[in-house]
């Protein structure tokens, strides 16, 4: 068994700062989203994935993989969204086992109403305090970390 490589003081500060930033920023964006649009960040993420595809429909398995959620967790969340009229379900004619999650007109209206204030909040809380060099560095860091995790981790929905 390999010996643990403990974080040095600089790494510890950076890691704890990242965790705190993620918590504080996530909470602020969630509050803003809920207050101004009555959507959760999870609702918004589902709607974003649906609006990102041409026909505004995805298989549950595709959505679970994109969101890195267990299918059962996603299914429960989608049921709540369906009750609110944000999404619908359609059977897959070529595969009797599967279903498509489809964006409803109400879901499209909800994301179109929520997006401008969400982008304003992201800009205000995040991008407005970064330099162009910070943004380039962050993009590079994110790409490398995501690549490492995806190369060594199995998506929970697989």
Task: Tell me about this structure.
- The protein has helices spanning 9-37, 41-51, 60-67, 71-83, 105-125, 132-152; strands spanning 57-59, 87-92, 95-103.
- It has one domain (11-129, 141-152): Orthogonal Bundle (Arc Repressor Mutant, subunit A).
- The two termini are 29 Å apart.
- With 158 residues, the protein is mostly helical.
- α1 (9-37) crosses α5 and α2 (41-51) packs across α5.
Properties at a glance:
DNA-binding; Arc Repressor Mutant, subunit A; single chain; three-stranded antiparallel beta sheet; WH_DNA-bd_sf; HTH_MarR-typ; mainly alpha
Compile the SSE list and pairings.
Layout: H1 9-37, H2 41-51, E1 57-59, H3 60-67, H4 71-83, E2 87-92, E3 95-103, H5 105-125, H6 132-152
Antiparallel strand pairs: 1-3, 2-3
CATH level 4 superfamily: Winged helix-like DNA-binding domain superfamily/Winged helix DNA-binding domain
The CATH class assignment is Mainly Alpha
> With helices defined by DSSP (H or I, 4 residues minimum), what is the helix count?
6
Can you tell me the CATH topology? Arc Repressor Mutant, subunit A
Helix content: 55-70%
Share of residues in strands: 5-15%
Q: Secondary-structure element sequence?
A: HHEHHEEHH
Radius of gyration: 19 Å
Per CATH, the architecture is: Orthogonal Bundle
Number of domains: 1
Strand order of the largest sheet: 1-3-2
Distance between the termini: 29 Å
Taking the sheet with the most strands, its summary is:
3 strands, antiparallel
Q: What is the residue-mean pLDDT, rounded to a whole number?
A: 93
- Overall number of strands: 3
Uncertain residue ranges:
none
Shape: globular
Judged by helices, strands and strand pairing, the structural class is mainly alpha
